[in-house]
Amino acid sequence: MRSKAAAQFLLAEDFSHIYNMGGGIVAYDGKKAVGDVDFGLEFFVSGDFANVFRMGYAMEDGLQQLYLVLQEECGDSEVKSLLERLAKFEEGHKAMLKDLFPDVAIDENDSPETLEGGFSKQQILDHFSSGSASQEDILQLGIMLETQAFDLYNRLATKENDPESKDFFKLMANEERHHIIFLSKEYDRLLQ
């Protein structure tokens, strides 16, 4: 009943494309979320980054590098093109961060093993080791990573006490939301 009330509230606020699953979460038989509520946060607590900006920038860079590695291993030209677009997307995000915080030094040689959302780069590479990823696989991967990053930045913003860091995490969450919207539209277009 809570999800039905939430759906009605969102519809009343002029949101579109709101769905409420009949039978609730008990009726859901699709993919399941994994990990506990603190999944991915350990990286931010114990990471080697001097500040949250460097951490966020490095994770964007890590995802860009992952897309480029997957592009090199892929044989399908459409998938290669999609991966190139996604890598450029992350490059644009990095450029935006540099423009917003020009006084923060960045080590361009720092390539973290942790990606947006706290996932390991090696986990993803192992999953796509055959080089036979489809466009659907890559879009699902992107949506998963961006959604996890969106959730992670929101949780970090909630936990953060420093106003500047809190604002940074909110900014990053909003950027990830834009990425999710883009990827979702691409995925819908692919399925049509």
Provide mean pLDDT, rounded: 77
CATH classification class of the largest domain: Mainly Alpha
Instruction: Provide the structure class.
Output: mainly alpha
Q: Mind summarizing the main beta sheet?
A: none
> Would you count the extended β strands for me?
0
User: Could you name the CATH homologous superfamily of the largest domain?
Assistant: Ferritin, core subunit, four-helix bundle
Order of helices and strands: HHHHHHH
Q: Which regions are unreliable across 5 or more consecutive residues at pLDDT < 50?
A: 45-50
> What is the fold-level CATH name, i.e. the topology of the largest domain?
Ferritin
Strand content: under 5%
Helix segment count?
7
Distance separating the two termini = 32 Å
Summed up, the domain count is 2
CATH architecture of the largest domain: Up-down Bundle
> What is Rg?
18 Å
**Helix share of residues?**
55-70%
Please outline what is shown here:
By secondary structure, the chain is mainly α. The chain has helices at 2-12, 41-46, 52-73, 77-100, 121-127, 135-159, 163-191.
Layout of SSEs?
Elements: H1 2-12, H2 41-46, H3 52-73, H4 77-100, H5 121-127, H6 135-159, H7 163-191
